[in-house]
Amino acid sequence: MARASSSTKTAKPAATAKTGKTVKAAAPRKTKAVALPAAPEPFQAGSLKRKQFATTGDAHILGDVTIATQLVVGGDLLIDGDLIAEEVFCLGKLTVTGDIQVQSLYIGQALDAGGHVDVEFLLKTGCQPEWMANLLAAEDSDDSAEHLLEKLVHPAILARHSHADVIGGFGDIQCLGYLTCGDLDCQGSVQLDEDLEAGEVLFIGGHLAASAVHVRGDCNVQGELFSESDLDVTGSLYAAELQAQGNIRAGSIGTQGDVIAWGYIRAENELSSLFGEIHAGRWIGTRGNLYAAKYIKAGEAVVAEKGMTCGSDYGIFAGSILPRSKWEKQGFISASSKPKLVLSGAWVESKKLRQLDTAEKKRAPELDWEIARQARHDMLQQAD
C-alpha cells in the first residue's frame, strides 16, 4: 500500500528545453488596496433658504428648502418639507415629504415625493455623474467636466453610488400626488397616486401607473401603461401593454401586448397590437389601419378607415353588449374592405371615425360613468 505522504510531495520546477536549468515560478505581485477618504458627515439644517447651495455628500433638511438658483447634492437628499428651486442636481436618491416646484430636476437614482411634483422643463432620473458634470460644464464654460465632477461629489460617495442597491429601484419615481412636467425621461418605473400631465414622455424604462395620463406630445413606455381613468396622448403612443379604466385616445397606438379600455379606443392613425388583442368596452375607431395578432373586441362599433386585420385563428367581435337588432346602427364593423373572421356585429360600408365622434358628443352626460373622474380632472386643472 502506497504511503499517503508520497502524494503530498511538492512538484519540482520543470527544466527549460534549451538550458536544462530549472526556473522558479514568479511570485504573484501584491497590490495594495487604495483606501478612499471617509465620506463627509451629512449636512443637516432645520430649513434652507439661499441663493445657491452645494454639498458633495448627503443632506438632510428638517424643513422647507427654497433655493433661488441652483441646488447641487452629491449624495442622497432628504427634505422634511417642500422644495422650491430653479435647478436641482441630486446624484443619489431625492426624498421630499412635501411638494416639489422646480424648473429642471436631474436625479441620479430615485425620486420619492409625498406631495405634488411640478417641473417646468425636464425631469430626468438615472443620470450618471459624468453626464451631470458635462451638463454643468456646459453652463459654466470656465470649468472642465473633470474638475466639476470632483467638486460635484465626494470620492467615497461616488464609489457608493457605483455599487449601491437602490431599494426603491434605480431611476424610479414614486409620488403621492400628481406629476406635471415639460418632458419626462425616467430610467425606471413611475407610480403616481394622481394624474400625470406631461409635454412629452421621452422614455420610461419600466411601468407607468397613474390616476389619469395626459401627454401633449409622444409617449414611450417600455413596460405596461395603466390608467385608472382616461389615457390621452396627442402624439404617438408606444407601450408593452395598455390598460385604461376609461378611454384611450392617441395620434397613433402601437403595443407589443394587449390594448384594453373600459370605454372607447380612438387613434388618428395606426392602431396595432403585435402579439396581443385589442378590447374596448365601447367602440374602437381609427383613420388608419387596425391590426391585432389575436382578437379585436368591441362592445359597440369597430371602424378602421384603411383596413382591419386580426389573427388567423381568432376573430372580430362587435356589438357584444348590444342586442342584435341594434348592430346596424351601433354595433357595426366598417373598413375599406370587409375583413375576414367577423364573428359578431353587422358589416356596414363607408363609416368614418368622425361619425363615432359625433355620436359620442350626443351621449347623455348624466348617464356617463366617466363623469366623476372627469370632474376630478377638471378640478385639478383649475387648481393649477
UniProtKB/TrEMBL annotation:
Residue spans of biased composition, Low complexity class: 1-26
Region entry Disordered, spans: 1-31
Record lineage: Bacteria, Pseudomonadati, Pseudomonadota, Betaproteobacteria, Burkholderiales
Protein name as annotated: Polymer-forming cytoskeletal protein
Domain of life: Bacteria
